[in-house]
Amino acid sequence: MQILEASDGVGGRVRTDRVEGFLLDRGFQVYLSAYPEAGKLLDLEALQLQVFEPGALVYDGRKRHRVMDIFRRPSQLIESAFSPVGSLVDKLRVALLRFRSLGSSTEEIANRPDRKTETFLKQFGFSDKMVNGFFRAFYGGIFLERELRTSSRMFEFTFKMFSQGSATLPARGMGEIPLQLARHLPPETIRINSAVAAVTKTSALLPGGEEIHGKLVVVATQAAQTSFLVPDFKAQAPSWRSVTNVYFSAEQSPLNEAIIALNNSENGLVNNVCVPSDVAPSYAPPGRSLISASVLGLHKDDTLPALIKEELTTWFGDQVEDWNHLRTDLIKHGLPEQAPDSSVSKPPGYLKMNDIWICGDHTTSASIEGAIISGTQTAIAIQKSLN
Questions:
Q1: What is the dihedral of CA 12, 14, 15, 21, to 10 degrees?
Q2: 298 domain residue, yes or no
């Protein structure tokens, strides 16, 4: 087996860089500890998963309000129940949705009628105040879109994962996940800095003219590159959601807890803010804090860090003036679009075109779990075909 990797390391969209002693994931990401298939392949103990608080702080333009999973944080019952984010009936509906999701298998969720997440939430009985005041911001950070146009199957799956487990960060960064998987392979299996110019069903051609032959070819790249290598895939290729992530360093954390802060005001660029070093102290050098701010879409303006600092001063006060800009990540290919009645969570989890195998989260669900399911199902199918 030969793996040809175009970049300088494995991981694709899940990479971590060390910058000035900080661990910078390429865009704000989390690993959901309840992922069933990923949990079978990964050594979660070795990843030293650091856990977020089960809830969020919601900024309404004036102050931050706490909304927590009261089943895991019962001491927060009163504050969460009477926060102005949604009504008391909305909070009871969240509990009902939690019980429903925990009582449903992933297979049952994948076979339910599909619709936009916004439609699902309103049909479930949530008020506009709850949909607009919580779900758009929280799932805006997950789906990279605030319109809630994503498949309700994907929403129900992720809601189940949040209810069943925790959002986490590996102590050595999200990039440790693909690195751990790569360590199971012989070192000579992976060739980095090896872009592929063309493929056939049994060969891969490199730009320099080298041709590598084998029994079969698997294209496991993001969808745009797959369309280039397998032109017939272009008709099925999804569009992409983009995100801009800006990192700052500071002497102190503006949150001082392992939680995500969401923007529910009618103004501003920022969708969500967190302090990864509050979750995993190893993300920052001693005595420093790492702050992550996510803005949906691509924002190439060099003044963006200054605009974000100005905006977040209304959230956190004058301490923001002392933040230092570390890096801005423009992530064009953040997540593949997942419209209702797409291939989300539907078998077989891979494609075969012109006898070329295609896998990736764009063939299942846009998540680490989806990518692993796709890869696993592709391997099983290949074994059967070879036998």
A1: 170
A2: no
User: What letter does residue 321 receive in the DSSP assignment?
Assistant: G
What CA–CA distance (Å, rounded) separates 145 from 243? 9
E-assigned strand segments in 91-228: 167-170, 190-191, 198-199, 203-205, 211-213, 218-219
CA distance 132 to 152: 16
Task: Give the range of the structural domain holding residue 179, as residue numbers without chain letter.
Answer: 3-14+172-237+351-386
Measured distance CA(154)–CA(32) in Å, rounded: 14
Angle value at C-alpha 235, between 231 and 237, nearest 5 degrees: 90
Cβ count near 107 (within 10 Å)? 9
* pLDDT per residue as tens digits for the range 298-337: 999 999 999 999 999 999 999 999 999 999 999 999 999 9
Residue reference for tokens 């064009």:
332
8 A C-beta contact, residue 195 and residue 206: yes
pTM above 0.90, yes or no: yes
